[in-house]
UniProtKB/TrEMBL annotation:
It comes from Hymenobacter polaris. Transmembrane segments: none annotated. One of its GO terms (biological process) is methylation. One of its GO terms (molecular function) is RNA binding. Keywords: Methyltransferase, Transferase. Residues 17-106 form the MRM3-like substrate binding domain. This is RNA methyltransferase. Residues 125-264 form the tRNA/rRNA methyltransferase SpoU type domain. Belongs to the class IV-like SAM-binding methyltransferase superfamily. RNA methyltransferase TrmH family. InterPro entries: Alpha/beta_knot_MTases, MRM3-like_sub_bind, Ribosomal_eL30-like_sf, rRNA_Methyltransferase, SpoU_MeTrfase, tRNA_m1G_MTases_N.
Amino acid sequence: MYAARPTPPDRITSPQNPRIKEVLRLQEKSAERRRQGLTVVEGARELSHAQLAGWRVAQLLLCPELAGETLTQALQAAPPAGELLLVSAAVFAKLAVRERSDGVLAVLHTPRRTLADLQLPANPLVLVLEAVEKPGNLGAILRTADAAPAHAVLVGDPRTDLYNPNVIRASLGGIFTVPTVAAPMPEVLAFLQAKGIRTFAAALAEGVNSYTAAHLAGPTALVLGTEADGLTPATRQACDETIIIPMRGQLDSLNVSVAAAVLAFEAVRQRGQ
């Protein structure tokens, strides 16, 4: 676990440093992230979104050569609450996953959100994902949820860690700006029903309404499954209505993140936003 420790007078210059190995374990192992309740975010912009959303910083790693003089001086003078470590360019290259990193990386305490914690407006728009497994897809959907905007993203039976650094990177910080909760799918559906939110299952079935014909202006949850298998039969049957995005070409489906964007922005259009 990370604890407050004095900042060393010299920057860390070896990728074999135990502190660097701790961060690498968090990046690479979901079990380690869950055990410690920590995750890793790269980039000053994403860190700013996290702080605005109230996420606490356990550790800030800063590479002055990459961050630039102004940013380095600002973060050294008033770093986020947490431990500040200066690292060499070689060490940061070991940690960074971006090609052109800005030299800022942070270890964050991950929130323990439940369905009961969600504060939804009177007419919510919610995106629901069943068994999502690709971090890039989840991250892209979180970007859509921020842009539309949707009021929450609920992930039923997830097959990927919500706080996987690849999710955070793909979301461009959307994981911080949109309330996101993982729970068993039956609990997600029961929560939506109790809140009076109508559920729309996105499917490939023939003979169902086009998404443009569905009434998405009221309390709405758009429910999407995996690209390989779609929604499970149990989830589809539990939803109030099934809708389809008509495919005009020879292929039979869209990437799930693209489908989520199409549906979300149609709901926003119907609401006159």
